[in-house]
Amino acid sequence: MMEWWRGLETVTQWFYGAAGFFSAIFLWQFISSLIGLGGAEDVDMDAGDIEAGSASDAIDSVAAFRLLSIRAVLAFLTLFFWAAAMHHDAGTSLTRAITYGTFWGLGAFVLMALALHLMRKLAETGNPRLQTCVGMRGTVYLDIPADGTGEARVTVSGVVSHVKARSADGKPLKSGTPINVVRTLGPTTIEVEPIEEPDSTKE
C-alpha cells in the first residue's frame, strides 16, 4: 500500500486525499440525515418575529435550500476528486482527468439535488396539514416554558399528534393543561392558550 502511494504523482496523491476528505464529510452528512441531525426541520423561530407563520415558512424554505445546496456540492466534490484521481492514476493526462472529474461531479450534483428535492416533496405530501388543528382543543404533552417551546397533543388532519407548541401569552403551561390551538407558527409549531376549566366548587 505504501509503495503504491509513494509511486503516485504528487497531484494524484492530492486528488486521493481530497477525495477521502470529502467522502468522510459526505458520509457524515448522509448519516446525520438518517438519524435526524442538522435538518431544515430543526429551524426554530422566536414567536415575536413571526407574523401568521409566513416568516417561519420562508426561513424553513431557505434552510432547506441551503442544506440541499451543501449536500449537492459535497456530492460534486466527492465524485470530482475520486474520478480525477482514478483517471490520472490510470495514465490519463491531468487536463483530461480534471475534465472527466468535472463531468462526474456535475452528474452527482444534479442527481443529488434531484433526489433531495423529491424526498422533500414526498415528506411534505405525507405530512398532515398543521393548519387543520387551529381552533381545536388538546392538552400540553411536554411542559411549555415561559417564552419557550414545549409540546402539545392535538388532532391534526384527524390524527392525534404531538406538535411543538408555544404559549400565546408567553406564560408557562404545565403538562396536562387543557389548551386551545390559536394559530400555526410555521409548518411544525403551533400557538396555544389554556382553557379555563369551570370551578366545580362554585354553585
Describe the 3D structure:
The structure is a single chain. The protein has a five-stranded mixed β-barrel with strand order 1-2-3-5-4. The longest helix has 36 residues, at 54-89. It is 49% helix and 18% strand. Helix 2 (10-35) packs antiparallel against helix 3 and helix 3 (54-89) packs antiparallel against helix 4 (94-126). It has two domains: 2-126, no CATH class; 130-194, OB fold (Dihydrolipoamide Acetyltransferase, E2P) (Beta Barrel). The protein has helices at residues 2-6, 10-35, 54-89, 94-126, and strands at 137-142, 149-156, 159-167, 178-184, 189-194. By secondary structure, the protein is of the alpha+beta class.
Secondary structure topology:
Elements: H1 2-6, H2 10-35, H3 54-89, H4 94-126, E1 137-142, E2 149-156, E3 159-167, E4 178-184, E5 189-194
Parallel strand pairs: 3-5
Antiparallel strand pairs: 1-2, 1-4, 2-3, 4-5
User: How many domains?
Assistant: 2
Q: Largest sheet, order of strands side by side?
A: 1-2-3-5-4
Shape: elongated
The biggest sheet, with number of strands, parallel, antiparallel or mixed sense and barrel status, is: 5 strands, mixed, barrel
